[in-house]
């Protein structure tokens, strides 16, 4: 293999790994499996792939908390259930080690997601979090943590209906215990613990195809530090380009250009939340934030989340945020970490005066504003030493992805609602799975 081919293969691997972040089961292509072959999922309140959905709403609303068993399903004798108390540093460490060693890794184990304690503290403890929703399985003898699943409370809106729900995340089974049908047991246990709180719906995402996605989005990646990606051997040089040309292609301006752009502060919360709520109205699947939840998500976030506003003449016109989740680079003499930024929530009043979000006028105003804003976000991320910036085809993102040189990834992210029948929601992709700037997306929720 020539050096060029080798390097461009590495780039493909990197992009795939970036996509794996949410394409966590490591499946980059949608697999073919009939509904009846999903031994576990066919027993759950989820829609079939071919279901014609006439009306939206809960699939099973017959149960009450008192109908739900008080005890978990039994585990094999070698294992025991536990509630992981993540306020205890030693137990947080257990989760941290399990996930960093078993969650997502590329095939040659060259890179690993470098989740930090701060990241878990932030994502697992939103207001209203419950200790018992951090569920673990330990080896009875050694007490080693070998599996984990978490739920976090969230109010969702699907089209016009709001309901209490949870977001399920960080399902992880130790590599040595895979394919032993432990995942369904963990899912049933978290369901039991959530149902006990009279909550019957959940949102979750993954690369793996299950019955049935309410939406599918695609990842996009924007190199911020092409030279570093090239130096660590990730980025190949296209046959007809020089290094200088590639660096020039991805070089961003020195300074941001959105007028009045600055970090968000406590005093901004009311104005930003009002702007955000109004912006989110356009989408069909959103999380509704209380002020407290909004504060938790975007302020004092320990170098995990970065939130900015654009303020001119005392008015906040735009809000944007992104989070950091780096890779550890193993066995590389030059670098031991790759900084990775992920676009999180944003809002802009650019098209508020226009009635129809899709009109030519509205589209052009919003596209102009958020293209500048997202270029600035890339600059801010670069200044924070991030090397790549990721975004999905959700929200209004397809308006700026191409112009800002985000390349399409080969990872797709499926959104699932548990126990809620929904007519599919646009994920920002056309029939060929390319970004769709005309149709855009009606997914307004961002999952970690
Ligand atoms: C109301 C409250 C409700 C709360 C619950 C809502 C639902 C929450 C659902 C969970 C949302 C999680 C959100 C995230 O965190 S997504 C992140 C998932 N984590 C990873 O990818 C990390 C690395 N992988 C692993 O640790 C394991 O491979 C996992 C744990 C993923 C599967 O372990 P394993 O490979 O050892 O398999 P098994 O033999 O035990 O079990 C096989 C069964 O499990 C089904 N499976 C496989 N992967 C997933 C998956 N990602 N979501 C749902 N189901 C999945 C599979 O189709 C099969 O069922 P069926 O095909 O026979 O039917």
From TrEMBL:
Q: What is its EC number?
A: 2.3.1.97
Any one annotated GO CC term: cytoplasm
Q: Which residues form the Glycylpeptide N-tetradecanoyltransferase N-terminal domain?
A: 58-217
Quote the catalytic activity from the record.
N-terminal glycyl-[protein] + tetradecanoyl-CoA = N-tetradecanoylglycyl-[protein] + CoA + H(+)
Q: Which residues form a coiled coil?
A: none
Gene3D superfamilies in alphabetical order: 3.40.630.30
What are the subcellular locations of this protein? Cytoplasm
Enzyme class, broadest EC rank? transferase
Q: Name one GO molecular function term.
A: glycylpeptide N-tetradecanoyltransferase activity
Location (main, coarse): cytoplasm
Q: Which UniProt keywords are present, listed alphabetically?
A: Acyltransferase, Cytoplasm, Transferase
Please give the SUPFAM superfamilies that the UniProt record associates with this protein: Acyl-CoA N-acyltransferases (Nat) (SSF55729)
Q: Which residue intervals define the domain Glycylpeptide N-tetradecanoyltransferase C-terminal in the entry?
A: 231-446
Question: Which top-level group of life is the source organism from?
Answer: Eukaryota
Q: How does it assemble?
A: Monomer.
Q: Which family does it belong to?
A: Belongs to the NMT family.
Q: According to its UniProt entry, what is the function of this protein?
A: Adds a myristoyl group to the N-terminal glycine residue of certain cellular proteins.
Protein name in UniProt: Glycylpeptide N-tetradecanoyltransferase
């Amino acid at each position: 293999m020539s050096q060029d081919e080798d390097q461009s293969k590495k780039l493909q691997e990197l992009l795939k790994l970036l996509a794996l972040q949410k394409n966590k089961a490591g499946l980059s292509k949608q697999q073919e499996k009939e509904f009846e072959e999903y031994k576990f999922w066919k027993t759950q309140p989820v829609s079939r792939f071919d279901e014609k959905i006439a009306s939206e709403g809960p699939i099973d609303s017959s149960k009450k908390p008192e109908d739900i068993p008080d005890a978990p399903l039994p585990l094999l004798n070698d294992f025991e259930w536990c509630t992981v108390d993540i306020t205890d540093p030693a137990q947080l460490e257990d989760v941290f080690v399990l996930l960093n060693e078993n969650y997502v890794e590329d095939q040659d184990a060259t890179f690993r997601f470098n989740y930090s304690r701060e990241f878990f503290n932030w994502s697992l403890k939103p207001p209203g979090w419950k200790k018992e929703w951090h569920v673990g399985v330990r080896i009875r003898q050694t007490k080693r943590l070998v599996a984990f699943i978490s739920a976090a409370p969230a109010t969702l809106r699907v089209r016009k209906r709001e309901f209490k729900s949870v977001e399920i995340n960080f399902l992880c089974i130790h590599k040595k215990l895979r394919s032993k049908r432990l995942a369904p047991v963990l899912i049933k246990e978290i369901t039991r613990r959530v149902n006990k709180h009279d909550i019957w719906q959940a949102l979750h995402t993954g690369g793996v195809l299950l019955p049935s996605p309410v939406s599918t989005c695609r990842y996009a990646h924007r190199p911020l530090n092409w030279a570093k990606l090239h130096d660590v051997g990730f980025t190949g040089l296209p046959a007809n380009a020089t290094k200088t040309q590639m660096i020039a292609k991805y070089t961003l301006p020195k300074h941001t250009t959105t007028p009045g752009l600055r970090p968000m502060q406590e005093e901004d919360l009311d104005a930003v939340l009002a702007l955000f709520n109004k912006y989110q109205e356009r989408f069909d699947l959103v999380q509704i934030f209380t002020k407290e939840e909004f504060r938790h998500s975007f302020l004092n976030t320990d170098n995990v989340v970065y939130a900015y506003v654009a303020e001119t003449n005392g008015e906040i016109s735009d809000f944007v945020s992104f989070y950091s989740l780096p890779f550890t680079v193993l066995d590389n003499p030059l670098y031991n970490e790759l900084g990775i930024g992920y676009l999180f929530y944003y809002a802009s009043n650019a098209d508020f005066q226009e009635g129809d979000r899709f009109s030519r006028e509205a589209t052009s105003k919003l596209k102009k504003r958020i293209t500048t804003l997202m270029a600035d976000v890339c600059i801010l991320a670069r200044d924070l030493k991030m090397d790549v910036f990721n975004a999905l085809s959700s929200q209004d993102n397809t308006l700026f992805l191409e112009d800002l040189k985000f390349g399409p990834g080969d990872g797709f992210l499926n959104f699932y609602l548990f126990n809620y029948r929904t007519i599919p929601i646009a994920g920002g992709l056309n029939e060929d799975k390319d970004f769709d700037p005309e149709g855009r997306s009606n997914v307004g929720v961002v999952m970690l």
